[in-house]
Amino acid sequence: MRWKGRTVLGLVLVSMVASSLFTMAMMKTSAASKADSSLTASANSLFAGIAGGYPDEFKKLYEAFSAIQKEYIEKVPTDKLVEGAIGGMVNSLGDPYSDYMDPKTAAEFTSSLQSTFQGIGTEVTMQNGRVTVVSPFKGSPAERAGLRPNDQIISVNGESLEGLDLHEAVTKIRGPKGTKAVLQVIRQGVPEPLTIVCIRDDIPIETVTSEIMEKNGVKVGVISLTQFSTETAQHFKDQLADLEEQGIGGLVIDVRGNPGGYLLAVKEIGEMLVPNYAPIVKIEYGSGGQQEEYRSKTEQAKPYPITVLINGGSASASEILAGAMRDSGNYKLVGEKTFGKGTVQSTMEMQDKSQLKLTIAKWLTPSGEWVNEKGITPDYVVEQPAYFNATLLPADKELARDMNGSDVKNLQVILKGLNLDPGREDGYFDQKTEDAVEQFQKNNNLPVTGKVDAATRTLMEEKLLEAIRHPENDMQLQKALDIVSQSTK
């Protein structure tokens, strides 16, 4: 979650200190060796008035820097050592959400975001040295392929991601529309790595969609938020007004798979929904516990019931909204426990265009709960059918009688989701599984072979996606609609 607001001055100071400490080290080396011509006039000016040179705490850093410059077998550019020192400091924090990008990486990252919006569509972080999925975006190639929150991506197209930083890994995952990203994924509870194939595509930037569904004779508005961007609050306001004009008797807000975004956006949405001018979120800075509280601007609750849909891909700003709605005492949460990201980050651009992202605060729900690494448990826990978590079938081989393994087990889950009985779900391709495949082929005018060939695989995946997208099969949505419609009576 990116931070905007009162901390700007503090962040500027942090940025200045981070740059200046290493500039000081370079200045000392220059004085000692008479050889470093890379110092800028502005850097010299910045530290001309500091008595005593660099702080004592940085003596060891300077000693190591000087030793490498003088004694190492090869000449190492000064900027490479400085970049490494900054990266090392950030890594030592042990915080998956704090990060550093050198000028080149930052430029490439910013350029790709601004120019293409192409890739597989998922929010990732680095946990325990592995690229870890926070949440795939709704409707994205990652979601369609079956990538799930907390999946660990260990390779892309045969290239290991081990030892890469987050941005190097993301660069390998991204790519032009229509190209394949073959991911090797470790998933908790699955004994061997999964192969998940994503076809890269344009990633939609529309963050708010809405529709009206009827349940038990009640018109219920459903607003889905895919992330919290700069325009999300205004779009939410506009679409909610449109739904109200159409006479809705209840509202479902869906933040499943929403990895978060701008604090300002969720704050503005909370101001519209949380009644009694109640708190929306509390921000706590540093070890001193200094707190800042954001409160609603609304006195009366909406004249209709509201539920909020959450799951394991609901993170950060999504959890702020869920926590505020729950703690207000007026609204219910439906679905599965959220991701559990209770910290606030700010990204600052340094003088050389590098970027430093730091965790600067933690946020608390209005009741004072810190959800970090715990998540928020819904009032109504509802799991989706197993086939919602199925992955795409392998494109590089046929599945046939007497085969065994995770690919066959995944096939059996898919068959069951298509109302075909495979007889078992343990990963062994027996006669009954073959019968189910044959039945699918008969139903869809395919050659009846009992084998999952390319044509069968493609159509099976299309039918599965149709089933997942059908609202009647979405058990969490149906529960939310039930709660809202029953509450109006």
Shape: flat
The total of helices stands at 14
- CATH superfamily heading of the largest domain: 2-enoyl-CoA Hydratase, Chain A, domain 1
Number of domains: 4
Going by CATH, the architecture of the largest domain would be Alpha-Beta Complex
Give the overall pLDDT as a whole number.
85
C-alpha-based Rg, rounded: 26 Å
The level of helicity is 25-40%
- CATH level-3 fold name of the largest domain: 2-enoyl-CoA Hydratase, Chain A, domain 1
Overview of the structural elements:
It is a single chain. With 489 residues, the protein is α+β, with helices and mostly antiparallel strands. It folds into 4 domains: 8-92, no CATH class; 104-202, Pdz3 Domain, CATH 2.30.42.10; 214-383, 2-enoyl-CoA Hydratase, Chain A, domain 1 (Alpha-Beta Complex), CATH 3.90.226.10; 386-471, Muramoyl-pentapeptide Carboxypeptidase, domain 1 (Orthogonal Bundle). It has helices at residues 8-33, 41-47, 59-71, 78-92, 103-115, 141-145, 166-173, 232-245, 263-273, 317-327, 406-417, 431-443, 454-469, 475-487; strands at residues 99-101, 118-119, 122-127, 130-136, 152-156, 159-160, 180-186, 194-199, 201-202, 208-215, 218-225, 250-254, 279-285, 290-295, 306-310, 332-335, 343-349, 355-364, 380-381. The strands form 4 sheets. Strands 3, 4, 5, 6, 7 and 8 form a 6-stranded antiparallel beta sheet that branches. Strands 10-11-12-15-16-19 form a 6-stranded mixed beta sheet, with helices on both faces. Strands 1, 13, 14, 17 and 18 form a 5-stranded antiparallel beta sheet that branches. Strand 11 (218-225), helix 8 (232-245) and strand 12 (250-254) form a beta-alpha-beta unit. The longest helix has 26 residues, at 8-33. The chain is flat and about 80 Å long. The model is unreliable at 1-51 and 112-116 (pLDDT under 50).
